[in-house]
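Entry:
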Amino acid sequence: MNLSTWLQQQEKNGHQAYYTFAFIDEGAKREIRRKTLKAIAIPGYQVPFGSRDMPIARGWGTGGLQLTLALIGPEDILKVIDQGADDSVNAVNIKKFVSQVTGVRLTNQVQEATLIQTRHRIPEEPLREGQILVFQVPIPEPLRAVEPSERETRRMHGEADYSRMWLHLYENIVQFKEIMIGSRYPVMVHNRFMMDPSPIPRWDNPRLHMAEGLYLFGAGREKRIYAVPPYTSVKSIEFEDYKFRVEDFGGVACSRCGRTNTFLNEIIDDESGKRTFICSDTAFCSKL
């Protein structure tokens, strides 16, 4: 389906199109696609781009939304998740908006989707070749916790000088006897660039390594795009005697599906105080 066909269908369905396909103008799409190609060519490198104003507030996923709108086509099938859930406010509203301006089919199933936009999670079900996972990124700079200057972090990346981050991890171990980074755990991409994997839990970090799908990261407020191409080495940083480890739920099972090998959300009943656990990935939880 081309653009003219889409416009005709919109008018036939009673929707007058006051915008181009996928809302963003064609010039902006070309610029985002060019920067995306550069990001894919240099895995883990943050590529600046001209972030546009979107009909949602900055900080609510404008970077990921711009990537999705620049890449989506009429034949694509879209899935949007927010911390693993398909039915959260953020996910539902983004799906409604993208569907309204493109007419693409929506799905909750990972294997059906050609394009997935996510906030703070990677689906439990592995991606296949040809699929794209777009991350909404609030802070793209992994060194921000140890260096506030943008100019200095650019230099540190250029020289592969990551000593301050290693010192930060060492201070964690001295103070807490382990590395206390719950999310945004830094990774080394292609043995060259240190990268912020977005606020995903440590549980999801291993899913970045040698994945079959394409991972794209968009930060609208910070105006950065970076990528992890398929079959790329992505390693969570660690010491020889203090290894990276994912969250341990102690064998607790999901109260819905009974799985013990997924990332779980804890729910506490306000009245009784009873604690239950359910899968963060709602679509995976429903596949029994």
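The first helix runs from residue 3 to 12.
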